[in-house]
Amino acid sequence: MPDSSTSPNPSPDDDAHAGAQYDDEEARLLPTEELEFEDVAISKNRNRFCTMLNGPRLPRRHVISPLLPRIQNAPVRFLSRFLPKKSHKAILLAAGLLAWTFLFIFFLSSELPTADGAGQSVVNLDCVDAVWHRKNECGLDGINCRPFSNASFAFRCPADCAAVQVLNPHAVGPLDVNYRPLVIGNGIYRGDSFICASALHAGIVSNVRGGCGRLTRVADHTHFASAMRHGITSIPFDAYFPLSFSISEDSSISCPADPRQILLALTMSFTVLISVFSSTSLQFFPIFTLIFAHVAFASDPPTASYRNITVLPDHISMFAKRILPAYFCAVVIYWTTVRRTLSGLEAQLEKTILWLGGFWFGALSNYTFEWIPISRLTAHDLNQQPDAKLALAVILVILICIMAQQIYSFWLEGRLLRYLGLYSLFILGILICLSIPGVSLRIHHYILALLLLPGTGMQTRPSLLYQGILLGLFVNGIARWDFDSILQTTDALRGDGTFDSLLPAVLQPVISTEAKTIVASFSWAEPPQGMQGISVLVNDVERDRAFFDDEDGSGFVWERDVELKVPEYFRFAYVRDGRTLDYTRAGTLFPNGTWSMPESNSAV
Fold it and tell me: Which residues cross the membrane (predicted)?
């Protein structure tokens, strides 16, 4: 919190005050004509409430007085001794940026295509890639995901796949798995398991460095065990599945490590040097560029094309697409917020620790905020993710405390009314968005950053930290996810999640034994209007789609060998407009021919 010490002749934007000494962040007297967005003359008839909100009679601008000023200013003095002219400093900055570009490209070259010993290209995988597609994309009996066996390919995984989880319920027999890595089995993995997480579980690749391996398709496999290995607990499945795979090392592959760690050290070093040795607010733009590039190519790169041989073309294309509109936003952010915070700031080390440190903290949000149990700010996600509501409540309390502090600081500067007006417009815009039918408001973290950044436009130590974090969130949001819409349809928000649709009411099946075969005949209650058929999963594989206008659309018959000693799990979902809706919970057909199904799915 700033103190009340003042200076009779403040001039915060003038470089002549560089050697002045202050004891703390000073709220300095500021003539009315120096206040941005303030009227020259204040109306004598304004009411007492507005007078109170408008701040003290003599507004004061906050200025950070550096701790140990001689030490903090030493880098600037050292640079000015050898490079006294601005043109010299500009040449040095350009040379530094050129050196960073060369080194950055050099280390990124490790992502160029590579081949195995047989000359076949190594496939680049994303952390969620699998050989069995989700949402019934493999078709009836898995025909679109063949071959089931006698095939293999070499692959390469990026770093940091251990933290990647399923964000919507995924059926694994009787379980609905959510918010954990999708690894089913031990040694032999079910086909819908994440390949890279399975490779981590098998110890073939490293979570820090990534790595390469070879995937071999294994035909129908029964009983997938659960085991805790290399920090990942796999999921058990006690039945059979038509496609599984094993993972092994392939010594014929020359597999460079994922470069994100060395690129982080490189880019962070250059940004620290720029921050420490630069005394102008224009340092914002090179730092913004370097951090944006690091997120787009290294720390949190966007998803590339499915199973390609190099991710670089996709990442270059998306970087070029996003950097130009991001720069437009950066210019606006600079002139409205950042310039006021960094102009005339002499605390080089404090700026680097608070502002630049916060910038990196926000830009690396896929690591730094990973522990917060909130994946998306939607009602659906908050309801289904454990502890999400509690975490959101804690975050809101912290934000309210920060806002109260910032409001008081703006009041001291005499700018509170203007900013209250600005945020009133923001709130009005949000209310209008909430009232639009057919779409839902989605506050992405880049939107959150844009909304909160104006509230950091002052030179205090807390504002340095808050502004840095928000800038990092903006960069991470755009470099990783692009300018995603603030208004999204229900389908766009759902992704592969549930529809919250009606579930079929399944009647008690008729089960009989014929020779060496157990026959189970299923039927269901009268479907509601608009439903066109029923999809049946057996052990999480779609085995039938029965349409009500067909002759056999009133039921489903399943046969199993009496010698089969594992259970089978059945789920049912309505079909409408060519797609399956939500599936029921799993009913179980046991080896002895008995049937069990949760009561909520059964018809009376």
Answer: 90-108, 272-298, 319-337, 352-369, 390-408, 420-443
Q: How many CB atoms lie within 10 A of CB 4?
A: 9
Query: Largest Cα–Cα distance of the chain, in whole Å?
Result: 103
Name the E strands within 348-492: 440-441, 487-488
Cα(334)–Cα(460) distance, rounded to whole angstroms?
17
222: left (phi over 0), alpha (psi -120 to 50) or beta: beta
Tens of pLDDT, residue by residue over 347-367, are 999 999 999 999 999 999 999
DSSP one-letter code for 394: H
**Structure tokens that stand for 411 in this block:** 């009041």
CATH of 510-601 among 2.120.10.10, 2.60.40.10, 3.60.15.10, 3.30.70.2860: 2.60.40.10
Count CB atoms within 10 A of the CB of residue 249.
Answer: 16
Question: From residue 159, how far is each of 104, 287, 469, 475, 485 by CA, in Å?
Answer: 18, 25, 24, 21, 29
Q: What is the pLDDT of residues 263-310, one digit of tens each?
A: 999 999 999 999 999 988 899 999 999 999 999 999 999 999 888 999
Helices (H), 83-171: 86-108
Distance between CA atoms of residues 113 and 124, nearest Å? 9
Section 68-82 average pLDDT: 92
β-pair type (152-157, 123-124): parallel
Structure tokens at 146: 């063949």
Contacts of 47 (CB under 8 A, 6+ apart): none
What pLDDT does residue 371 have? Answer: 81
Give 187-244 as a DSSP string.
Answer: SEEETTS-HHHHHHHHTSSBTTTBEEEEEEEE-SEEEE---EETTEEPBPEEEEES-E
CB burial string 261-284: b at 16+ within 10 A, e below: eebbebbbebbbebbbbbbebebb
How high is the mean pLDDT of the chain?
A: 88
C-alpha–C-alpha distance, residues 486 and 502, integer Å: 29
Give me 353's structure tokens: 């620790």
Domain 123-248, CATH number (from 2.102.10.10, 3.40.50.150, 3.40.50.300, 2.170.130.20):
2.170.130.20
| pLDDT tens digits, one per residue of 162-221 | 989 998 889 999 999 998 999 999 999 999 999 999 999 999 999 999 999 999 999 899
- Tell me the domain boundaries of the chain: 76-105+262-304+315-488, 123-248, 510-601
Contacts 24+ apart (CB under 8 A), 78-85: 79/277
CA distance 499 to 515: 42
Gap between the Cα atoms of 598 and 407, Å rounded: 55
pLDDT in tens, 556-589: 999 999 999 999 999 999 999 988 999 999 999 9
Segment (H or E) for 569: strand 568-576
What's the rounded Cα separation, in Å, for the pair 216 and 224? 16
Residues 6+ apart with CB under 8 A from 25: 2, 3, 62, 63, 64, 65, 459, 460, 461
What gap in Å lies between CA 320 and CA 279, rounded to an integer?
Answer: 30
pTM assigned to the model: 0.87
Q: Give the pLDDT confidence score for residue 41 in this predicted structure.
A: 43
Same CATH fold assignment for domains 123-248 and 510-601 = no
